[in-house]
């Protein structure tokens, strides 16, 4: 656990030092759980968004995009259930006066059981070496089975209690597990209460005539209310999908773990409209497709797992999360939900407008079912960044900090380095920079010894360094250095574009799906 905390602290400090993420309004002591994406962060975020969009929209002829407004008619949120039921179970510690999400406290307790399982696996790996069979060990070891069963039982009870809105039992569970306040260590808890998460605002020129509005807590409803517009204008046939990325806002009382849980965040969602009765096959299809997308980035199969929901939303008939191993344990990264026909029927009822699809093959109209995939862009950013940040011991006994971002996502694809700031080398380096800028985000760096510049580029996540030296004046060749292997090769200047393109192209990476 201490190692995980140290890793997380390194992630936070590295994100700031290298221009990825800053605390919002930092000069005014910041704003809790609100962050700004800096010069490198905005590029990484953009590249993740584009990687998702290309795979989801461009590579699927039956999925189209949408950009709906953040402000929506307040009836939208009444119809969706957010006004009445968009709540978190909160609990206060009487001694520390700190407020927590009750479900998160319980989930963190279970995460400690998962950490114990990992510890048992590491011990067994060390003990048995190459003969170690991890799958068999997880299935047969008594301690591991005990931890698993205890964790599953806790989550099942919590899910059932929340579903029945039995908040007294949620508190009882916290007390039975002897969960203490993370700040004070006190176990003196208040009752659990529900708290609505939507931010309210007003629309209008004067206070008297202003309309009460909400900042959207999710992007999905913009897709549902535009279902018929998109279907008719695009002449879309079932099955088809509508994808959207954009900001959402939730008044999280317990917002923590850096950009994992924020009050202003960005979602990447796709709502797939299907014929009723086909939801099971499409649910399995999108579970598999979305996991393949994650695997295409090469961040390690062991870092992902599916978690099937014990507690289903009232409108869902199946739901699963893709969880990722963050520095603070396995947590939800993406959700795949079979939402049935709840959303469109609810908007039909509240708007008085028909939101149905006429199926020419069956010669009848029906309200489509919906299969949803929803991933947090900020969480994906954190997953990529934290997994990529590594400390490596080199053969010469030194260490280097390297951000091994998937090359397709890296903010800067190459750094152009003149060996010295004279003899015409900067002029050649600048010319290379200007040529590559048309196709890639590249940087120029002439300060310090070239070794220091390599280390700076490594820590910044730049896949390639291109060094211009005195031989370049004679042979028009440069040295290209690969971040991950530190291997260097001599190549022609005219070959640089193709070499970089081959490593950072969307096609190369997404073809792994």
Structural description of this entry:
It is a single chain. This protein has 513 residues and is of the alpha+beta class. 40% of the residues lie in helices and 24% in strands. It contains 18 helices and 23 strands. A seven-stranded mixed β-sheet has the order 3-9-10-16-13-12-11. It has a five-stranded mixed β-sheet with strand order 20-19-21-22-23, with helices on both faces. α5 (102-128) packs antiparallel against α7 (142-163). The protein starts with a helix and ends with a helix.
Shape label: globular
- Order the strands across the largest sheet as they lie in space: 3-9-10-16-13-12-11
Number of strands: 23
N-end to C-end Cα span: 34 Å
**Which residue ranges are poorly predicted, with pLDDT under 50 across at least 5 consecutive positions?**
none
Summarize the entry for a quick read.
With about 525 residues, this protein is α+β, with helices and mostly antiparallel strands.
Which structural traits does this protein have?
513 residues; alpha+beta; BirA Bifunctional Protein, domain 2; Herpes Virus-1; Rossmann fold; 3 domains; 7-stranded mixed sheet; 23 strands; 40% helix
